[in-house]
Design goal:
Shape: globular
Largest sheet: 5 strands, antiparallel
Order of helices and strands: HEEEHEEHHHHEEEEHEEHHH
Oligomer: single chain
Distance between the termini: 38 Å
Number of helices: 10
Structural class: alpha+beta
Mean pLDDT: 95
Helix content: 25-40%
CATH architecture of the largest domain: Alpha-Beta Complex
Length: about 300
Amino acid sequence: MAYTELDLLVAAKLLESAGCAPLSSVEDLSGGWANSNFLVNLEDGTRLVLKIWDDRGLEEVERLNSHFLTVAEHGIPTPVPLLLESGRRMMEHDGLAWTLMPFVDAPWLGRDASSLRHLGELMARLHSVPDDGTFITRYTMGTDIWPDVFRAAEEKDAWSPFLRECEADYSRLSELIPADLPRGIIHGDLFLDNVLARDGEVKAILDFEDICVNILATDLVVAFIGCCWDGDEPVEELWQALLEGYESVRELTQAERAALPELYRYAVLSVALWRYRKFRIEITGSEHADRYKLMTKRLAIPLPFLGYEPRE
């Protein structure tokens, strides 16, 4: 998806700064809902991903770039932005950050047990990466942003029954999810189109844009939401494979297991709320205006294997 039109002259300057061959052609990249992504083909046959960061400020992109490097250094397969002649991994143009990353030639994660098992293993390894003190605790896909959405709805007179439901839920958050659950570095947005895999093996985890220190088990339920459903149907086999892979590296505590149902509910609502904010409040008239409902209708589906029961 692209929100910003690609300026070919700026792209050429960026490629030159990274010591790359000249540009041959450009294609829009599917996937990604927050920033503009392009596949750039170079004259020497190299392919790179050019990202224009519409949804993140310059300082934030600098911080994220350092996190990508940290994660990769700890063995998590993820593309790291190329180093430019300036010594930075981004270039500024019209107030937006532009970055170049290696292109990983693999399809999106499939719905197969082997891939989900490997994803679970890598997730647990990510959760063991030490915090060097630079990782934020604000989860930009989670409940941390709910008050911001409520304020935006108030300012734009955009309240709805869905937002009122979220507001009521938010008031009970501290009662339902223990504050002392294990925390560490999480990805926060492990959906199918953020993972590349082939032959049952994860080749790259993409879009660490929501990386932060937060409740570890949140990553598991978000990955379940994003990777373990077939249309409107949950696939227990995929959840069990994800969990098996995870616990081959790190076992969940009893407190984490007990919290999974509520973590699931809040994760579903958080994904729905992010979509609502993006396509109902920030962007009006979008074809994706009702995309949040793909999440909310899941709340009515019992998940015995997760211990989740819909509220009356």
